Amino acid sequence: MKNRNIIVTGGNAGIGLATSIALAKQGANIYIVCRSREKAEAAVQEISKASGNSHIRYFLADLSAQKSVRVLAATIRNELSVVDVLINNAGGVFPEFKLTEDGIESCIATNHFAYFLLTNLLLELIQKSDYARIVNVSSNSHYRGKIDFESFTKDKGYFITTAYEQSKLANVLFTNELASRLSGTHVTVNSLHPGVVNTQIGNKGTQWYAALFWSLTAKLFGVSIEEGARTSVYLASSPEVSKVSGKYFDSCKERKASEKGLDKNLGKELWRVSEQLCPL
Ligand SMILES: NC(=O)c1ccc[n+]([C@@H]2O[C@H](COP(=O)([O-])OP(=O)(O)OC[C@H]3O[C@@H](n4cnc5c(N)ncnc54)[C@H](OP(=O)(O)O)[C@@H]3O)[C@@H](O)[C@H]2O)c1
């Protein structure tokens, strides 16, 4: 991976941080995308120290806001001549229904629309690479997911897990539709489940009982962040998957996505609605 340019969104914490360290150890140039300068600077230090690699940089963006993603993509296009790997990893759980400045519900805005917009805006730079991989961090939660397009902009009885499951199903659908749009090119795009991983994801902004539930679950059943990064690192760097595209992975192995995740018409409809709410 020496001198490959790799972008990792949410690279300052959890799975994204461990992914960045592992790929930095392989000699890649790492560019993390973070929303806090302070956290970004600390993470750059940590990744450099842990990997012995000094080519670690950060970009700042609030990925829930389309304007910020557009500025981010423009900055990346200015600073890099090529992107070899894009890892869409940043995400979260959102306890309450809240619209972003674009009028989109926060969970789907952060977990799906950011993947959709950033990937499309960087596609030209990715196509310039002879390596060209896109890795979308989804979740096995997608197996329970359903898409309700109206819920993207309206409160239809919001529930934290339903919204999360929907957003992770959207990751799988987006991956598969993009793979079919890119078929015949050298660019690959795959999605993955990182495992239940002992990160802070369930403790950010959630009610105390949800945070407690998550902390216990993650501590009792969760794997380490290093283990949680394994499939992302595999999809970004293994020669075994250099020609594999449009697949879902769990524990570094291909796994059949849900029926809904494999529904081509639903994928096309998601793309159409996404473009309507987030023009490319
Ligand atoms: N942990 C699990 O068990 C698990 C299971 C399945 C799937 N996943 C998926 O794995 C991915 C990483 O999750 P994690 O567990 O590592 O969570 P995490 O420790 O909370 O890390 C999430 C990262 O995303 C960043 N982020 C969130 N919203 C952002 C925004 N609006 N703009 C910019 N950055 C933003 C966070 O920044 P801050 O540090 O500023 O918050 C953080 O760097 C997510 O896509 C999640 O859905 C996790």
Task: List the total number of helices.
Answer: 9
| Total strand segments | 8
Proportion of beta-strand residues? 5-15%
Separation of the first and last Cα atoms:
30 Å
Q: Oligomeric form of this entry?
A: single chain
CATH level 1 class label: Alpha Beta
Question: What is the mean pLDDT?
Answer: 97
Number of domains: 1
Which CATH architecture would you pick? 3-Layer(aba) Sandwich
Q: Would you identify the regions where 5 or more consecutive residues have pLDDT less than 50?
A: none
Radius of gyration of CA atoms, rounded to a whole number: 17 Å
| CATH topology name | Rossmann fold
| CATH superfamily annotation | NAD(P)-binding Rossmann-like Domain
Helix content: 40-55%
* Helix/sheet category: alpha/beta
Bound molecules: NADP nicotinamide-adenine-dinucleotide phosphate
Give the helices and strands as they follow along the chain.
Answer: EHEHEHEHEHEHHHEEH
Q: In which order are the strands of the major sheet placed?
A: 3-2-1-4-5-6-7-8
Please give a structural write-up.
This protein has one domain: Rossmann fold (3-Layer(aba) Sandwich). Helices cover 45% and strands 13% of the residues. It has an eight-stranded mixed beta sheet, sandwiched between helices. The protein has nine helices and eight strands. Helix 5 (160-181) links the parallel strand 5 and strand 6 (188-193). The longest helix has 22 residues, at 106-127. Helix 3 (66-79) packs parallel to helix 4 (106-127). The mean pLDDT is 97. It is an alpha/beta fold.
